[in-house]
């Protein structure tokens, strides 16, 4: 198995761990998708993807419909996706994806977490190059051969296809998202969920005490309402 498989295995239990956080995240994704492409999922591929993800975390349909309706209101604040970078203790690179309606607040908060936990708040581009920006899709495994599917999807950008207990996962570069989404839909293959991740190119093994230092910072960052994802180069 490749890096995507190992990365997914390491993060599996942590992702979507708090249901309230997952719903907040989906709500922001809906607002950004609607503001970008309108409220009709048929004509808005990004919104279709978010609705699929809402089902994956069992978000009630009425919550989704309410969020779409709210997003069409011109008075609803739009969220801007902002990336923050820095280092945790022991040389671990940290990449923070946020969705914020107040950049000054978010910058101040993220900087304070790094400072309080003996980290270093970095400049743009300081650690982003250490991660591969990928997209992923999860589809049902029934009736599908992962190896055969991988061969068929290589021409559309797929780099890694593997099966786990939740279905078949497809990983590709970030830029291949639309192409693969369109191909899966044209084949009438159900997309259970999809998204984007940043996979570290190299990871660093730490001692138990050092891991605790890094996790203290990560947990602090993840508690912030503006934070969508935190990625790091610490070996899981």
Automatic annotation (TrEMBL):
Q: Kindly list the places in or outside the cell where this protein is found, as annotated in its UniProt entry.
A: Cytoplasm
- Recall the GO molecular function terms of this protein's record: DNA binding
Give the domain of life. Bacteria
Q: Where is the TACO1/YebC-like N-terminal domain?
A: 4-73
Q: Which Gene3D superfamilies match?
A: 1.10.10.200, 3.30.70.980
What Pfam families does the database record attribute to this sequence? TACO1_YebC_N, Transcrip_reg
What does the record list as GO biological process? regulation of DNA-templated transcription
What sequence ranges are listed for the domain TACO1/YebC-like second and third?
79-234
Give GO cellular component annotations, separated by semicolons: cytosol
Q: Which UniProt keywords apply?
A: Cytoplasm, DNA-binding, Transcription, Transcription regulation
Keyword Transcription regulation among UniProt keywords: yes
Q: Which HAMAP family match?
A: Transcrip_reg_TACO1
The similarity comment for this entry is:
Belongs to the TACO1 family.
Show the PANTHER family listed in the entry.
TRANSCRIPTIONAL REGULATORY PROTEIN YEBC-RELATED, TRANSLATIONAL ACTIVATOR OF CYTOCHROME C OXIDASE 1
Instruction: State what protein this is by name.
Output: Probable transcriptional regulatory protein E0F76_10520
């Amino acid at each position: 198995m490749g890096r995507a498989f190992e990365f997914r295995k390491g993060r599996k239990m942590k992702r979507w761990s708090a249901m309230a956080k997952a719903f907040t995240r989906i709500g922001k994704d809906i607002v950004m998708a609607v503001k970008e492409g309108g409220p009709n999922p048929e004509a808005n591929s990004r919104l279709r993807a978010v609705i699929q993800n809402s089902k994956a975390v069992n978000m009630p349909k009425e919550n989704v419909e309410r969020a779409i309706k709210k997003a069409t209101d011109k008075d609803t604040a739009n969220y801007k996706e902002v990336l923050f970078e820095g280092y945790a203790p022991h040389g671990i690179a940290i990449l923070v994806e946020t969705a914020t309606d107040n950049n000054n607040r978010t910058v101040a908060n993220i900087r304070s977490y790094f400072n309080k936990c003996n980290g270093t708040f970095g400049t743009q581009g300081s650690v982003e190059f250490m991660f591969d920006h990928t997209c992923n899709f999860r589809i049902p495994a029934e009736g599908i051969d992962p190896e055969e599917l991988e061969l068929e999807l290589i021409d559309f950008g797929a780099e890694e296809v593997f099966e786990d207990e939740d279905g078949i996962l497809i990983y590709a570069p970030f830029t291949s998202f639309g192409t693969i989404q369109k191909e899966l839909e044209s084949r009438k293959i159900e997309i259970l969920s999809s998204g984007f991740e940043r996979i570290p190119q190299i990871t660093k093994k730490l001692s138990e005490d050092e891991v605790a230092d890094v996790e203290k910072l990560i947990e602090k960052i993840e508690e912030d309402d503006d934070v969508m994802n935190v990625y790091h180069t610490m070996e899981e």
